[in-house]
């Protein structure tokens, strides 16, 4: 069991490494993608600086907490899109019968399929996240928790995308549903949860679990709470296992396109 996990981890790392090397063939383009993503994220902070010049807090958040929220949201987005980029176009792989080349390999089909590509700009999101952390106030404890929550949040976002995209095994045109779900996760993550009330707030902690991926981590970072930390960790494990379950349940219905694509 441990040997299988170790081998899969090594293979996944190599897959991401080679995908990154392909992207870095044009270093100028690669660097500009990273830099401009950092600048793009930073530009949105201007609106919050203006809003906080009018009010002391918004939804119970101070300006520094909103900065931390944006930084963690960027980290979550960056981790999911860099390490698991193909999870967000998985329905296209399924609908076009492109899983064939993964099925004949002695590796985990889902992990292999979603780690065959990387998004260079996502590195800009991760870098921006750490820049915000240093602005907020660096400590080794905060750095560890921040990194942990960035990874856990990335896994949650990826798992949600896998679940929604896997609906393509049963239904047509589910890419629209998956895209909508991904957009909701991204958009809500950049607003203080205090501005949401009632049914909307309940939705953000259940069907669209932005609350668990982003809001609870912010609360732990600002005032440590072991119970909330364990909730985030437990939910991540459950949603990742559910993603594997849904994908492999659907894989039994998969129809090959007889299209074999060589992968190096």
Provide structural commentary.
The chain has 264 residues and is an all-alpha fold. It has one domain. The protein has helices spanning 2-23, 27-43, 45-52, 63-83, 90-95, 100-103, 109-114, 120-136, 140-165, 175-188, 198-203, 210-222, 226-251. Helix 3 packs antiparallel against helix 4, helix 4 (63-83) runs antiparallel to helix 8 and helix 9 (140-165) packs antiparallel against helix 12. The radius of gyration is 19 Å and the shape is globular.
Global morphology = globular
Number of domains: 1
**Share of β-strand residues:** under 5%
CA distance, first residue to last residue: 26 Å
Q: Give me the secondary-structure category.
A: mainly alpha
List low-pLDDT spans: 258-264
Q: Spell out the helices and strands N to C.
A: HHHHHHHHHHHHH
User: Biggest β-sheet, characterized?
Assistant: none
What gyration radius follows from the Cα positions, in whole Å? 19 Å
How many strands appear in the DSSP assignment? 0
**Mean of pLDDT:** 85
Q: How many DSSP H or I helices?
A: 13
Estimated helix fraction? over 70%
């Amino acid at each position: 069991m441990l040997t299988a996990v170790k081998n899969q981890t090594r293979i996944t790392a190599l897959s991401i490494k080679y995908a990154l090397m392909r992207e870095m063939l044009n270093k100028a383009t690669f660097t500009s993608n990273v830099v401009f993503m950092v600048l793009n994220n930073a530009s949105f902070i201007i609106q919050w600086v203006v809003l906080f010049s009018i009010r002391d807090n918004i939804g119970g958040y101070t300006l520094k907490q909103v900065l931390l929220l944006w930084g963690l949201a960027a980290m979550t987005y960056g981790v999911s899109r860099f390490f698991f980029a193909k999870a967000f176009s998985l329905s296209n792989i399924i609908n076009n019968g492109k899983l064939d080349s993964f099925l004949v390999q002695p590796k985990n089909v889902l992990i292999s399929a979603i780690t065959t590509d990387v998004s260079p700009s996502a590195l800009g999101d991760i870098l921006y996240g750490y820049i915000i952390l240093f602005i907020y106030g660096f400590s080794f404890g905060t750095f560890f928790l921040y990194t942990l929550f960035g990874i856990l949040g990335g896994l949650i976002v990826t798992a949600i995308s896998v679940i929604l995209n896997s609906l393509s095994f049963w239904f047509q045109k589910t890419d629209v549903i998956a895209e909508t779900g991904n957009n909701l996760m991204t958009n809500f993550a950049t607003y203080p949860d205090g501005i949401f009330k009632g049914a909307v707030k309940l939705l953000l902690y259940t069907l669209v679990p932005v609350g668990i991926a982003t809001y609870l981590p912010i609360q732990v970072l600002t005032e440590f709470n072991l119970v909330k930390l364990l909730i985030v960790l437990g939910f991540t494990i459950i949603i990742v296992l559910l993603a594997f379950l849904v994908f492999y349940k659907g894989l039994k219905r998969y129809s090959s396109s007889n299209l074999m694509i060589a992968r190096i």
